[in-house]
Write a structure and sequence with these properties.
With about 425 residues, the chain is α+β, with helices and mostly antiparallel strands. The protein contains eleven helices and four strands.
Length: about 425
């Protein structure tokens, strides 16, 4: 008997996590946290940030002194000896030195490159932040879409139960001779159509689960919890328009313009003279005793003719700068149009939800009144069926607009850069 309890305890211990999982729910923030950890887009963007930071270090390296060690062995035929037979002779010379090169002036292009690299680092970080914003929008859409479909499926099941109850009542009335069999068949036909609709919604639910699981990596069967309140007052348009100045994609485009402006200065700097301070320390050289163990020189290089390469590089950089300005204008206009459209969508969703709530309340009362009137033979079975259909369809439309309102509201908040603090907190 004791052995039986041991085995039972082990089975319960193994099944414990499964039972714990069955009662565990995930809200929108939980799903977003999970998505942040597995998003390949964010991981790729982080690599771009690292590359931009290394390019900045390379720009610094062009300003700092460079030290190189070199060794050369020079072999030649010794003078005064012939080339024929065994009379040939040769001698060798070795040079071992350290060379230091400190750039003194490069037409200011080194500092321009440094500023451009710094701007690109900021641009890539902002691009990563914007990618996180887009991810939040995708997760919010998938989260509420799945919840909406699950709610729709639940309402369909409730409606099928009402139809089944209606069929049962009609069959009892047929048995008493108070209703015709055609009335039962009418309701059964409507129920069959509803079952077909239910199967369609089941398919939609599987797709919705798959999309959310793809984004978050969570199990498809994990239960969801809606912890966010219904947005009732979204505020004025001016609040959302002001948020456009903080949108990461707009700020990233501004930094890109700064970087390309710096590229123009780098290209122009190539036409100016370069000045380098070069020093050598010799450990071994052929004329070590005559010329000493070190020497220093200042080298000035002035480009006189480069075949038009410098001019072409300047024009290319200026064209790229203009492209970045055009892209900034496009990003700003697109952002404004996107936020304005989402704002109107949320306002429309809110108005629809209010109207549908009123319609739902009335349709529910109408259905209940038709059921009572049918008992007193004041209305037909078709009237009751139409009232039931209107009641359930209105409820389904109401629940859909509620979740659509949450989707559009989260899209608006993210598009207007009003969820940046949330993403920064979740990424910690």
């Amino acid at each position: 008997m004791k052995k039986y309890y041991v085995w039972l305890g082990m089975i319960l211990w193994l099944l414990g996590p499964a039972y714990a999982w069955a009662g565990e729910t995930r809200d929108l923030q939980d799903c977003f946290k999970a998505a942040l950890k597995r998003s390949e887009v964010l991981l790729n963007q982080q690599e771009l940030v690292i590359q931009a930071e290394e390019n900045y270090q390379k720009s610094w390296g062009a300003i700092l002194p460079a030290v190189n060690g070199s060794y050369a062995y020079f072999h030649r035929q010794a003078p005064g000896l012939t080339r024929s037979g065994n009379t040939a002779g040769s001698s060798g010379q070795q040079t071992l030195k350290l060379t230091g090169d400190q750039p003194l002036f490069r037409g200011f292009r080194d500092f321009a490159a440094l500023n451009g690299a710094k701007a690109l680092i900021k641009a890539q970080k902002l691009a990563r932040q914007w990618a996180g914003t887009q991810l939040f929008r995708d997760v919010a859409g998938a989260f509420y879409t799945r919840m909406a479909v699950e709610k729709d499926l639940s309402l369909l099941d409730n409606e099928l139960e009402l139809y089944q109850k209606r069929i049962k009542d009609l069959e009892d009335r047929v048995a008493l001779g108070r209703s015709r069999i055609s009335e039962v068949l009418t309701v059964q036909a409507a129920q069959a159509i509803l079952k077909a609709q239910r199967e369609q919604v089941v398919g939609q639910l599987e797709v919705a689960k798959e999309v959310l699981a793809f984004l978050t990596g969570l199990d498809q069967g994990i239960p969801l919890e809606d912890a966010d309140a219904m947005p009732l007052d979204i505020g004025s348009w001016d609040l959302y328009q002001a948020g456009l100045a903080q949108r990461p994609d707009i700020l990233a485009a501004i930094k890109n313009v700064e970087a390309f402006k710096a590229s123009v200065e780098v290209a122009k700097g190539a036409s100016l003279p370069s000045v380098d301070l070069i020093g050598n320390i010799y450990a071994q050289r052929p004329d070590l005793h005559q010329n000493g163990i070190w020497d220093v020189e200042i080298a000035v290089t002035l480009p006189i003719f480069t075949g038009g390469i410098i001019s072409a590089n300047v024009k290319t950089a200026e064209s790229q700068r203009r492209q970045s300005e055009i892209q900034l204008s496009l990003v700003q206009r697109t952002a404004l149009e996107e936020v304005r459209s989402l704002y109107h969508n949320v306002k429309s969703d809110t108005a629809q939800r209010t109207a549908l709530q009123e319609a739902f309340d009335l349709s529910e009362k109408n259905y209940q009144a038709n059921v009572k009137d049918y008992e007193h033979n004041l209305v037909t079975n078709l009237d009751v069926l139409q009232a039931l259909t209107a009641y359930q369809d209105t409820e389904r439309a109401l629940e859909k607009i509620r979740y659509l309102l949450k989707v559009d509201f989260n899209q608006l908040e993210a598009a207007a850069a009003r969820r940046l603090s949330l993403m920064e907190e979740l990424e910690k």
